[in-house]
Design a protein that fits this description.
By secondary structure, this protein is mainly α. About 75% of the residues lie in helices and about 5% in strands. The protein is globular.
Length: about 300
């Protein structure tokens, strides 16, 4: 019996921190502030990258896609979390849970691949600057972004199907803030090890392969930068890559912790905090990291604001 047949009309109870009522208000304030900054920051980056002609380059095209991802990523979970915190009965419909799971997995996997694409873009810019325009042409950028989105949603459908088809014997209490794979697997009343093995395989493909490609790219970048004699040249080259490396470390570090170990070995409270970090805090920090550390972005923002002000 699969989940869809067993409980298509039922609700799930999202426990969150229900056993710690004193955490409800601080969590609500944290989520509201984070979500507000996420919307403002990512919409600002999208607006600046679209309106400023000087930012119509592959790097900022990928950054615009990353902002779209982060915006949708948080919107798939945070509004419902904020609503649930204010209610005594913290529930989500079966259909809502399925949609949340699919969207969250799809956008997370797409972001993994997109970050790998962005590292390749930096590799070409630093190591093959004379061929950059030829390699990173318009059609190539469109193709790799489309591949990232398509693969992300394909991975989500596979992982969601495996997770949702596990029998749960009437269990409805999800010990989490939203519908996520590790939390849903804990509801199963059957042996989850075979499914965990399959999910682990897909997680390795989506998490470790992009991380490996990123590390290889930055290994070549480091070699190229160290050959630059000018200290100013080395500083500028490292500056173009520093923001991306910070984002990669924050996102992949927490996602690998959650998805590359058995759900049973994860402390439930620690798992919730890690999920909040890579699902909510990291998307909020991304715009700050890219704007505060990026001279071109700050100058473009000033130009766009000046145009808007005078118009």
């Amino acid at each position: 019996m699969n989940w869809a047949n067993e409980s298509s009309a039922r609700e799930f109870i999202l426990l969150g921190f229900s056993d710690r009522p004193w955490l409800q208000m601080p969590l609500f304030v944290l989520l509201l502030i984070s979500y507000t900054f996420t919307i403002f920051g990512n919409v600002s980056i999208m607006m600046v990258c679209i309106l400023d002609p000087k930012l119509h380059t592959p790097m900022y095209f990928f950054l615009t896609n990353l902002s779209i991802l982060d915006l949708c990523y948080t919107t798939s979970t945070v509004p419902h979390m904020l609503t649930n915190i204010c209610r005594n009965k913290k529930t989500i419909s079966y259909g809502g849970c399925v949609a949340q799971l699919i969207i969250f997995l799809a956008l997370g996997a797409t972001e993994c691949l997109l970050l790998a694409v962005m590292s390749f873009d930096r590799y070409v810019a630093v190591c093959k600057p004379l061929h950059y325009v030829v390699i990173m042409n318009h059609w190539f950028c469109l193709k790799v972004v489309a591949f990232s989105w398509f693969t992300g949603f394909g991975n989500s459908v596979l992982q969601s199907s495996l997770t949702l088809n596990m029998p749960r014997c009437g269990r409805q209490e999800v010990d989490h803030f939203f519908c996520e794979v590790p939390a849903l697997l804990k509801l199963s009343c059957a042996d989850t090890k075979p499914i965990e093995s399959e999910l682990f395989f897909f997680s390795v493909l989506i998490l470790l392969i992009p991380v490996t490609l990123i590390l290889i790219s930055y290994g070549f970048i480091a070699q190229a930068v160290l050959r630059i004699r000018s200290a100013e040249g080395r500083r500028k080259a490292f500056g173009t890559c520093g923001s991306h490396m910070v984002v990669v470390t924050l996102f992949f570090g927490t996602a690998i912790y959650m998805y590359l170990q058995p759900p049973s070995s994860t402390s439930k409270d620690w798992g919730k905090m890690v999920s909040l970090f890579y699902g909510i805090i990291t998307p909020m920090l991304n715009p700050l990291i890219y704007s505060l550390r990026n001279k071109d972005m700050k100058e473009a923002f000033k130009r766009v604001m000046t145009k808007i002000f005078f118009l």
